[in-house]
Amino acid sequence: MIPSLEQLSDQFTRLIRLGAVTPNVEDSTAAAPGPTATPPPSPGPVQPVDYSLKGYHLDVTVSPGQVVLAAEILDQNGFGLDAITGVDWIAQNELEVVYDYFHPLSPLRVAVRARVPRGHPELPTLSGVFPGANWHERETHDFFGIRFLGHPDLTPFLLPEDADYHPLRKDFNA
Amino acid sequence: MIASNDIPSRTNPQETFVLNLGPQHPATHGVLRIKMTMNGEYVTRAEPVIGYIHRMHEKMGENRTWAQFLPNTGRIDYLSALHYNHAFVGVVERALRLEVPRRAEYIRVITSELNRISSHLVWWSAFLLDLGGFTPLLYAFDDREKILDLLEGVTGSRLTYCYFRFGGLCNDIDDEFIKGTRAFVAQMRPRLKMYRELVTDNIILRKRLEGIGPISAEMCRKYGATGPVIRGSGVAYDVRRSEPYSVYPEFDFEIPVFPEGDSMARYLVRMEEMAQSLRIIEQALGKLPPGPVMGKVPRVLKLPPGDYCYAVEAARGRFLVRTVSDHKEIPYRVKLRTPSFSNLSLYEEASKGMMLPDALALLGSLDLVIPDIDR
Residue A136 sits in a domain of what CATH number? Predict the structure, then answer.
């Protein structure tokens, strides 16, 4: 099944609206630093973007509690997990987790992102939906110290086995 | 004398032991370690342990300019350096909307495809070495040497190329390269035919690979496995087709797909891919446009704020660069999504219940490059 951009946008918009009506635990923690820490006005949570400039088609921003639901939508539409990574927005005291998805049968590319506070970087694991998320999340935990709740094994992966630092945080100095 | 049923391993068929493969082991082709829990000859669990040559390329990306990071890209997958060059110059060109001269794009395709063939030749020889055949290596390295000489002539290096530039190339190709590449294409075709007759159709190889290590298309999708692995599982996914970049849409070539999903299918995909690369090179040489190889590029590169992605089809699959810029000369974040990392991640599930020699055949059929996993 090959999804269209419009169908996907609709599904995500519905998901995000649903999240606003019934906030769960993760939502309330994520919402707390929200008003003060996001100076650039976000253009909306589900945003079609110019592929020729950005390299993907759809940019979806969800709350940390919704990343698994977003992954389920993409899984049902036949997407594969491309990568999971982080970005340290130290000025806003937030860590962003970016999930890239590719589709084996269509050119559609989707980026899903969620932000967590730097002091309490936790969000659920995707490894129940995409087993391939296991390694990507372990790597993201190594580099950023983001804890993926329910992950089977968050021990250091690429870093030495006794590593207790997170080198891609902007305040890490080697 | 001890009766055979007194030997502990025979009295308890459920007893397992741990077999440590690597980090220094000929079959891992680099420093990869696999913790294998074995039940006799059978693998109950194979857990890859990685990170032995982790160099933190992504942090290096955050403390040097865009141009200074370019040589790093040739050192991630050292067998497929030009594809990685391509992805990184591509992401900058995309963000700055730089115009790349058509001649430069054609040369990028020619050199990339040569690089793909040389990479597949290394895989082919190393894989057959794993399976116990030493001779093919001597043949493959003979062919590969010709590619390395050709690429050395234009890029200046033999392996870790840094040939592409933002907006073009650092050197134009010369007549010697064109003549040499034409000669190579003419000579490689009969060699591939010989490899088919000598190795691919060999009954011993077939028995070692057919039906061994089946990977389904669904498993590839769930783990993000790409390249010859997903194409050996019946999915015609190739970044050159599905997300066309550079001038690839201007060439007539096929995406080899084999539906069996076993190690033989992955083998056949790569063998067929070399023939297709030769076709692309021939076409590109035939209609190579004249003109400059370097476009207009600002002296100081500052990408507009935002994030940018660029994916290419490297020899091992989809390589994606995801960068974040905050309008400085230095990237805010460089993420390198490498194909070997995702391809290896399915190994634990795929190798369950296999016999040890078969599990090693599966490992070789994934075509791993360890610095590509560890980065």
Answer: 3.30.460.80
Range name among A44-58, A64-78, A91-105, B6-20 with the lowest pLDDT average: B6-20
Long-range residue pairs from B176-180, CB within 8 A, at least 24 positions apart, any chain = B177/B150, B177/B153, B178/B285, B178/B288, B180/B146, B180/B149, B180/B150, B180/B153
A→B interface, C-beta within 8 Å:
52-56, 78-83, 85, 87-88, 98, 100, 102-107, 109, 111, 130-132, 134-135, 143, 156-160, 167-168, 174
> A80 lies in a domain?
yes
Q: Is the dihedral of CA A62, B343, A162, B63 positive or negative?
A: negative
Report whether pLDDT(B31) > 90: no
Chain-centre distance for alpha carbon B225: 12
**Residues of chain A contacting B54 with CB distance shorter than 8 Å:** 158-159
Range list for CATH 1.10.645.10 in chain B: 98-300+348-373
pLDDT at A106 over 90: no
Q: What secondary structure does DSSP assign to A142-154, as a single string?
A: HHH--EEET-S--
Expressed as residue numbers, the domain containing A79 is: 5-20+44-149
Residue A163 falls inside a structural domain = no
Q: Identify the residue whose tokens are 């019934």.
A: A22
Q: How would you label A148-173 residue by residue, b for 16+ Cβ within 10 Å and e otherwise?
A: beebeebebbbbeeeeeebbbbeeee
Residue range B56-79: average pLDDT?
A: 90
Q: How far apart are CA B40 and CA B9, in angstroms?
A: 8
- Is the model more confident about A20 or about B198? B198
Q: Residues B282-293: pLDDT tens digits?
A: 999 999 999 899
Which single residue is written with the structure tokens 């021990």? A155
The number of distinct structural domains making up chain A is 1
* A132 in Cβ contact with A76 (< 8 Å): no
In this structure, what DSSP letter does residue A110 have?
A: E
Describe the crossing of helices B81-96 and B102-130 by its angle, rounded to 10 degrees.
Answer: 150
Kindly state the average pLDDT of the residues B113-139: 91
Q: Is residue A38 part of a domain?
A: no
Distance CA A65, CA A24 (A): 7
- Residue A25 is assigned to a structural domain of this protein: no
Q: Any idea which of A98-112, B19-33, B77-91, B280-294 has the lowest mean pLDDT?
A: B19-33
* Interface-testing mutation among A42, A49, A56, with chain B (most B C-beta atoms within 10 A): A56
CATH for B98-300+348-373 (1.10.10.10, 1.10.645.10, 2.40.128.630, 3.40.50.300): 1.10.645.10
Residue B344 pLDDT exceeds 70? yes
